[in-house]
Structures are given as structure tokens and as C-alpha cells.
Amino acid sequence: MVKNKKIKGIVCAGNLILDEIIEISRWPEISELAFINKINNSPGGSAFNVSCNFIYYKAPFKIYTSGCI
Predict the structure, then answer these.
(1) Strand 62-68 and strand 36-44: pairing?
(2) What is the pLDDT of residue 1?
(3) Residue 2 has what pLDDT?
(4) Cα–Cα distance between 53 and 69 in angstroms, integer?
(5) How far apart, in whole angstroms, are the C-alpha atoms of residue 63 and residue 44?
(6) CA distance from start to end of the chain
(7) I need a labelling partner for 22 at 20 to 30 A (CA). Which of 7, 8, 51, 62 fits?
(8) Strands (E), the chain
(9) For 10-61, how does the pLDDT look when each residue is reduced to its tens digit (9 = 90+)?
(10) CA-CA-CA-CA torsion for 41, 13, 61, 59, nearest 10 degrees?
(11) Comparing C-alpha atoms, which of 5, 14, 9, 16 is closest to residue 64?
(12) What's the chain's Rg over C-alpha atoms?
């Protein structure tokens, strides 16, 4: 434990997830298939999203992110 040192900030803890975004040609009917045009990856999860929102809104404190991948 560190004595006489003030650390100000917030820890955003939770999931860190890699979202897979799939673009399809059209929404299929029941038991039909659709062609996949493109697949993208994007970071997500509760800890990541909350941290990004604090940064976006210029929070006046340090932001730390912690979680499981």
C-alpha cells in the first residue's frame, strides 16, 4: 500500500469482447440462407464501452480499464 500518495481515477471493470459484425445481402426468411458480404471486428464489452464514454465526454479524472478477454 502506498502511503501519502493520492491516486484519483476510476476503474471500469467488466468484459472486454471482440464483436464480430456481419453484413449480409438481405434478411433471410425462416429456413433460408443469406450471403455474407463483409465481416468486421470491433472492440466492445461493458468495461470498454464505459471507458470510451468517459473519454468521449472528457471526464475530469483518470480512467483505468480492467477485465477478462
Answers:
(1) unpaired
(2) 53
(3) 56
(4) 19
(5) 16
(6) 27
(7) 51
(8) 9-15, 17-24, 36-44, 62-68
(9) 999 998 999 999 999 999 999 999 999 999 999 988 899 999 999 999 999 9
(10) 50
(11) 9
(12) 19
Alpha-carbon dihedral 23, 28, 45, 15, rounded to 10 degrees: -130
What residues contact residue 28 under an 8 Å CB cut-off, 6+ apart?
A: 34
How far apart CA 49 and CA 65 sit, in angstroms, is 10
Distance CA 8, CA 51 (A): 15
| Residue partners of 43: CB distance under 8 A and separation at least 6 | 16, 17, 18, 19
Length of the chain, please?
Answer: 69
Pairing of strands 62-68, 9-15: parallel
> What are 2's three cell numbers?
502506498
Backbone φ and ψ of 31, nearest 5°: 70, 15
